[in-house]
Amino acid sequence: MKEIKYLDNCGILIASEQTLLIIDGLRHEKNAFGAQSIRVREYIEKRLKRFEGNCIMAFTHTHLDHFDDSAVYKLIKDDMVDKAIIPRDDELAAQCVEEAADNPKITLLKGRTEGTVTFVINDMTLRFFETKHLKFEGYDHVLNYCIEITVGQERYLVAGDTDQERLKKILDQERHRIDGIFVTPVILGKPKWAEYLKNESIRRIFIYHLPAAEDDRFGYREFAIRQQKRYGRTLPNLNLLLNEMEVIK
Length: 249
Fold this sequence. Notes:
This protein is of the alpha/beta class and about 250 residues long. It has helices at about 40-50, 70-75, 95-100, 165-175, 190-195, 220-230, and strands at about 5-10, 10-15, 20-25, 55-60, 85, 105-110, 115-120, 125-130, 145-150, 155-160, 180-185, 205, 240, 245. It has one domain (about 5-245): 4-Layer Sandwich (Metallo-beta-lactamase, Chain A).
């Protein structure tokens, strides 16, 4: 990987020599984790405009804290994105779903097979593991993808809101080295779930999906900080992503 940057909340930017990938980079203003800053929006557009290779946007799922239908649609129509990979959702991704019928830049993941879908884009390989969303009331039916990104010998996993038990299965099956995994603070909520991260294959663990301090209505930041102290000895490779535009590599 040439560059890895935490944008904010769920947004991750990964760049290789030939490919720029943005995962869950645009979220709707009406979401539970606060509106996205103008600074981050402008940065994303600037990077898409200036990158000389292929620009890809991918999404773990289409909840409003991960996806903004109209903003993604606009970038596609403005020819700033070469490919958008979106889990199909006829409600939350209505504009992109309609556009996909005539626009080859949009790929819809239809799911319901618990399988994997692979894309090879220049020097970058993306694997989408179909999973279930974290168990919250009313969300059991929601399609979520855990995304694996490989460039050369480097490999990262972005879990999105993957259910912990499904994530364990993925980690148990995939025994190759994982240079970094991005997971929500929910996985630190039970010792049983935290144990899933004690995997010899994982070099670094990043806790993300944390709102800005002023938007933290649910206390996720305080919880993550407290749990990092709790698991500091057993998970010394645990890192919290608390600040937008944080450089990882």
